[in-house]
Every structure is written in C-alpha cells, then in structure tokens.
Amino acid sequence: MTSNLAAVSYGVNVNPESLDEVRKALAAFGATVWSESSTSSTTQSGDARYEVHTISFSAEAGTAETLGTLRRLVSDAAPAGIDVAVVPAALREAGRKLLIMDVDSTLIQQEVIELLAAHAGKRDEVAAVTEAAMRGELDFAQSLHARVAVLAGLPAAVVDSVRDEVRLSLGAAELVAAFKAAGHVVAVVSGGFNQILGPIAGDLALDHWIANELEIVDGALTGKVLGAVIDRAAKEKYLREWSAAAGIPLEHTIAVGDGANDLDMLGAAGIGVAFNAKPAVRAVADAAVNMPYLDAVRHIANV
C-alpha cells in the first residue's frame, strides 16, 4: 500500500547536500520523491538557531512494521548532528491536531522534584533516583513516593521559590503559540506537581493539563502526594481521553517526552517524539529531537 510521507530533517547545520545519504536510503526503499523544501528557525534578532529540510515522497509503507523499517533506514543514513522524522502526510495535513507533552525536562528545562529536594539538602540523592526512574529501571510510582518523602517538613513557601527557578525549554512558548494559533489542541501531562504546573499552564493557555498534587498541611509539605500518581499508564490514558473529547483521531496526535514513563504515551500517539531523551526512549520513539529547541516539533507536525 502506497503512503504519502515526509522526511523532515533538522539540525544546527542542515543543507541539501548533507542529505544525500538520506535520499539514497529513500531510493533504496523504493520511494518516489516529489518535492523538497528548506527553512530555518531564527531568534528574534535574526540569528539562525537550526535548519529544517523536508522531502515529500511516496513509498510502500502502509503498515506499522514497514514504516518502522523505513524510519530506521532513514535515521541511520542521516549524518551526525542531523535528526530525521518520517511523518505520514495525513498527520502533517490534518486540520486539527493534538500536541501532548511531558513537563520536566521537556516543556521545562529542569526536574522539579530535584529543585524541591535541594531545599532539603537531598538533591543528589533524589537526582540519582530520578535518573534511574527515567531510564525505566524503577517503578515510577514507587520512586515518586520515595523522592517526595524527603520533602517532609519543608515549608510550603519552598514551592513558590522553586516555581521562580523553573525555565521553559527553548522554543517551548513558540511551539505552544504556533499550535494554538492554528486551532490545534495543546495538553501536558506530568509526573511532577500541580502547584508548579498550574501557573505555567495558565501562562501558556494550555487546553488540558494534569500533574500530581503535593500534600500541604499546616503550611508544610507532608512528604506525600494526594490521589493516584500520574504515571506511565495515566499519561496514555489522558492522551486517549483528550483526543477523543476533541474529536481528534489518535493518528493526528503528537506526543513528546524524554523518560521511560512517557513510553506508552509516545507509542499510542500518531507520532511519538523523544526530546533529548534517555537511550531506551530514543530507541523506540518514532522520531527524536537531540538539540535544545523544543519548537522543532512544529516542523515535524507541519504547524
């Protein structure tokens, strides 16, 4: 079955000549190229951040298995410093899409639990557990409870201090604004905390957002979270719920994350993007962004 697709290449230094090996890989797969285009992402002052080159083509890639094979061939053919996302044209051309993202180390640059733990003198200890959980070596819910426990007794004002430390990833605001301006739905689902995420979600005018709730009693953190943990399964659940509520097929959704607890969400979406992710996530995601610019996702999705 012939499918219309696009090979979207992005990196700090992309030019048509650098993609000859990608073209050879497409030709070896039997693809028919019908157009190519280039663009660049610049700062407000006009300085180039990264470049994008899109090859539109058709190929016999109508099953998940053959599409996966094509993606591996093209990715392996890309030169160092350039990533390539092979994306169905139906997703890129969809009138309405849903973008769903992880928060810590994806929408924002930091891991909030580590910022909080620093106030308890436990940052290194908690960072080690977070790293293992993101690699998929620990159960996420159990690791979260263990990490939050070290926060017991901290004054609630610490949450406000940490909120001031949080910084959006480069290009995050531009990515959300572009999707919103085009009439798409933007959501985030986080293993972090509502007390931090709420103001960010408001500032970005997100359509949906959810995270864990830190328990605060008598002005202090108790070291516990309220309710069910937002874990790997929950992230996929909310992707499905929010896309269904918006009437958007899963095939027209884009999920972005960096850790093992994002894997189910990435696998269920129309395309799953690993953003500066752990090796286990990069190995199975449909596409990867290995540069600090989150707005590269808009070029993958053609927004």
Kindly describe this structure.
The structure is a single chain. The chain has helices at 20-28, 64-77, 89-92, 112-118, 123-134, 140-149, 157-165, 172-181, 194-204, 232-246, 263-268, 279-284, 296-301, and strands spanning 2-11, 32-42, 48-60, 82-88, 98-101, 185-193, 208-217, 220-226, 253-257, 271-275, 287-289. It is an alpha/beta fold and 303 residues long. It has a seven-stranded mixed sheet with strand order 8-7-6-5-9-10-11, with helices on both faces. Strands 2-3-1-4 form a four-stranded antiparallel sheet. α1 (20-28) packs antiparallel against α2 (64-77). The protein is elongated and about 65 Å long. The two termini are 27 Å apart. 47% of the residues are buried.
